[in-house]
Design a protein that fits this description.
The protein is globular and about 55 Å long. 61% of the residues are buried. By secondary structure, it is mainly alpha-helical. The chain has a single domain, classed as Growth Hormone, Chain: A (Up-down Bundle), CATH 1.20.1250.20.
Length: 410
């Protein structure tokens, strides 16, 4: 364990109340990514929806999140971090509760889109707020944020399974209640913005994508995220499990993702260039999807492939975002928002494409398509190696390294 990590563990319990408030809300925000996963089959059954219509809960959420990511740095740089956080939380509370009250799948899809807007505003601002509010050094605050992120990714599917076992409405109402508590905590415990905002141009993220290095990484992330969300969003249907069993499966997926993103990815990049790690991980991801296709009729085998996929995804998330940080001299908020927007839009395509491919060809065909998408991302990295030459440098500070880990999993 490095020096800054040791200091963080010693000081983690001495953080200001504002840090704990944002960290708690961060856990709930990250839970939203996988919360609906275990209840997709239930929603399809109870609301008389097709698998493709149920998958639109992911697509609408990710489309709006991706588009909003282009503008979050502009907004927060003008109204401040606290207001951006609170707006995001209010939107999540409103739209999550409205989704739980809905009587048809079209309404749930629409309200899930509003949830995506709130999540984009919150996630894009939370890390900077925690680091800026930290006492006793940034290291302990970063460890706290990483812990919140990992907990959210892992607990989301588990909570979705627990509440979804009662009713598909349960996860939506549960999120609304927890986010309302988070809102109150930030209002009461966070007195002012930790860092004075510096205005960012509205066009900055769009111009950033013209830079070859960032453009190559964004293109690779687009196809990588298609592969990511086929594994996450499509798999509940061929598994054919109940909500609680699905929750436990994707809890294992989330734990694997969190562990490799925080611990394994830094070990790999300390020993080899980042682009080499990317290429190896993309090959491994393609193999995971091929394995899932071959084992689609074996529930234990498919579960193993999903959990193995989580281990690979954790490495990919972190290393890709580290590369984004090194790719340009742009402000980190601009580069990450441009990259994240494209990446989320790739994820938005995957769920409905996977169910349509499965319906038209065969259930396992969706996994083969996802393997192909991972290989396209690999080819982009290989042929874009000249543009990516600078990404194999060393991240200069522990804060930057932790931000890469956090943004990668977001």
């Amino acid at each position: 364990m490095s020096g800054h990590e040791s200091a963080g563990f010693r000081q983690i319990f001495t953080q200001p109340k504002a840090v704990w408030a944002v960290a708690f809300a961060s856990v709930i925000a990250f839970m939203g990514i996988g919360l609906v996963d275990p209840i997709l089959p239930s929603i399809a059954a109870d609301l008389d929806a097709t698998p493709t219509e149920a998958e639109m809960l992911f697509t609408s959420y990710l489309v709006v999140t991706g588009i909003a990511m282009f503008f979050t740095s502009w907004l927060s740089s003008r109204i401040g971090a606290k207001r951006t956080l609170l707006i995001g939380l209010v939107l999540i509370v409103i739209f999550a509760a409205a989704a739980g009250l809905s009587g048809n799948v079209e309404a749930v899809i629409g309200f899930r889109a509003g949830w995506g807007l709130g999540n984009a505003l919150f996630i894009s601002t939370a890390l900077a707020t925690i680091v800026g509010s930290a006492a006793g050094g940034a290291g302990s605050a970063i460890i706290l944020y990483e812990a919140a992120l990992g907990l959210g990714i892992a607990i989301g599917p588990l909570l979705g399974g627990l509440l979804g076992n009662i009713s598909w409405r349960g996860p939506f109402f549960g999120t609304a209640a927890l986010m309302a508590i988070g809102f109150i905590a930030i209002v009461v415990l966070m007195s002012e913005d930790p860092v004075k905002p510096v205005p960012v141009a509205l066009s900055a993220p769009f111009k950033a994508l013209r830079i070859p290095s960032l453009g190559v990484l964004a293109a690779a992330a687009l196809f990588y995220n298609i592969s990511f969300f086929v594994l996450l969003a499509y798999s509940p249907f061929p598994l054919g499990l109940e909500a609680m069993q699905l929750g436990l499966t994707f809890f294992g997926w989330g734990i694997g993702l969190a562990i490799t993103s925080v611990f394994v990815a830094p070990l790999l990049t300390a020993r080899m260039p980042r682009t080499r790690v990317l290429k190896g991980a993309l090959v491994a991801l393609a193999l995971v999807h091929v394995g899932a296709a071959l084992l689609i009729n074996s529930t234990p085998g498919l579960i193993c492939m999903i959990i193995a996929g989580g281990l690979v995804l954790g490495v990919m998330n972190t290393v890709l975002t580290e590369c984004v940080m090194e790719a340009t001299d742009l402000p980190r908020s601009v580069a990450s928002s441009a990259y994240s927007a494209v990446r989320f839009l790739g994820g938005a395509v995957a769920p409905i494409a996977a169910t349509e491919i499965a319906s038209l060809i065969a259930p396992e065909a969706a996994y083969y398509a996802a393997a192909g998408s991972a290989l396209i991302a690999l080819l982009i990295v290989v042929f874009g190696r000249k543009a990516l030459a600078r990404v194999n440098g060393v991240i200069e500070s522990p804060v930057e390294e932790a931000e890469a880990i956090a943004l990668g999993d977001a």
